[in-house]
Amino acid sequence: MTAMTTANTPVLHPGLTPAQRDCLDALPLTGNHLVSGPPGSGKSLLAAHRAVHLALTGRPTLLLSRSRLLSRLLRDTLAGLTVPGAPVEAATVHGWINRRFGQDAPRTEDGWFDWTALTHRAATTLGENDTATPHLVIDEGQDLSPGFYRLVRLAAASVTVFADECQRLTDTNSTLTEITDALGRSTGRIEITGNHRNTREIAALAEHFRTGGPRPRTPFRSGTVPVVRHYSGTRALADDIATMAARHPKDRIGVIVNSLRTAADLMRHLERAGLVHEPQLYSSAAPSGRYRDLDLARPGVVLVHRASAKGLDFDTVVIADTETDSATDPTAASLRMAYYVMITRARERLVLGWQGSRPPRHLEALAIREDHNPED
Q1: CA 240 to each of CA 186, 252, 264: distance values in angstroms, whole numbers, following the listed order
Q2: Is 167 helix (H, G, I), strand (E, B) or coil?
Q3: Distance (Å, rounded) from C-alpha 36 to C-alpha 23?
Q4: Cα–Cα distance between 278 and 327 in angstroms, integer?
Q5: pLDDT of residue 9
Q6: CA dihedral for 255, 261, 265, 267, sign (positive or negative)
Q7: Which segments within the chain are labelled E, that is strand?
Q8: How far is CA 301 from CA 1, 40, 237, 241, in A?
Q9: What angle, rounded to 10 degrees, do the helices at 68-79 and 43-55 form?
Q10: pLDDT attached to residue 376
Q11: Are 198 and 40 in contact (CB under 8 A)?
C-alpha cells in the first residue's frame, strides 16, 4: 500500500454529519491540530475516524485518552472502523508513556509523570528510528497538562487533539490556548459545532453550568424536562433506578456518583432488584474483571464515578448524590464544570437526586421542578 503523506484522506465511513465530514476533510495528514467543540458534537467519534485516516499513512497510530474507561469505549469504536492493513490502537496516556519510556519513567512527587525529564529524554533520541515515531490522536485533551504536549511535540510524528476546555475536571489540565502554545505556533485550529446527543431541555440545563466559550447551538430534539428528585435514602434511590430500568428495558441508564460508598450500596440493592440486565459498576481501582471490563453498549444500569464519566453517554442519567456538593460554593468553576459534564452525558432523560433535609444550594437556583413522587 502506498503511504499517503500530505493529501487529505477520503471519508472512509458513512454515518457522519456534514459538519463532521467537513472537519475531517479539513485536517491534513501532517502537522499538529486542535479540534474543539461542545459536548455532543461527536469529538470522540471524530477522534476515532481521524486515527483511522492517519493509520493509512503506514505509521503506527495511537488513540490516547487519560481515562481507562474512555479508552475502552474508544477501542470498541475503533473495532467498527478499522481498515485492513492500517491498525489503530486505543490506549491510555499512562500505558503509552510506560511503553515508550519504560516502567521506570520519571515521576514527580504527586505520582504523575515528570514531563520535563521525559521531554529531555525524547530530545536525545530525536530523529532515531523515525519510521516508528507514531501519529498520536488525543481525546478529551483538556485533561492533560501543557507539559505533556511539550513532550509529544517531540515524541510524535503528528498530534491531533480533540478537546473542550469547559470540561476540565482534572488537576493537570490545559486550556485550548495552552495546548496550542505547547504544540507550537503552527498548530491548526478547527471548531466543530452542533449537539447531536442532548435534547433542548437537557442542553438548556447544562447551559446554566457552562463556564465559558461560545454558546453552543441549541439541539433540534425536544424531550422530557429534567427533574430534581429527593430520596429518603439509598434504598429509595435504588428502587427508583430499578423502576426506570423496568420502564425502559432497552435503555442504557448511567448512574453517576461522587461517593464510592454510595456506588457500592446502590450496587448491592440493584443486584437484588431482579433487573432484566445485570447492573454494572466501574472501578478504576479494579485490576481487571467484572468491575473493570464493562460492556457500555448493552442496555441496563451502569454505575460510574463522576471522574470517569467524561466521554460517555446514556439514554438516562441519574446524578445520584448531589448532596455531597452541599458545602461547595455554587459559583465555583470546578463544581460548574463537573455538572456541565455530568448533565451532558444524558440523551433523553435526566434526574438530579439528593438526600437530606434541604436541597443543595447549586440545585435551589435551577428553574426545574422538584419531584417528590418519582414518576418517569
Answers
A1: 52, 15, 16
A2: helix
A3: 10
A4: 35
A5: 42
A6: positive
A7: 33-36, 61-65, 89-92, 135-139, 158-163, 188-191, 227-231, 252-257, 280-281, 300-305, 314-319, 346-355, 370-371
A8: 44, 21, 13, 8
A9: 60
A10: 41
A11: yes
In the prediction, which pLDDT does 129 show? 67
- pLDDT given at position 10: 42
Query: Per-domain residue ranges for the chain?
Result: 18-191, 200-371
Neighbours of 367 (CB within 10 A): 7
Which cell is 88 given?
489503530
Q: Parallel, antiparallel, or unpaired: how do β-strands 89-92 and 158-163 relate?
A: unpaired
CATH class of 200-371: alpha beta
Least confident of 13-27, 174-188, 198-212, 358-372: 358-372
For 18-191, CATH gives 3.40.50.300
pTM reported for the whole predicted model: 0.88
| Domain pair 18-191 / 200-371, same fold | yes
Confidence at residue 1, expressed as pLDDT on a 0 to 100 scale: 34
List Cβ neighbours of 103 (8 Å cut-off, separation of 6 or more).
none
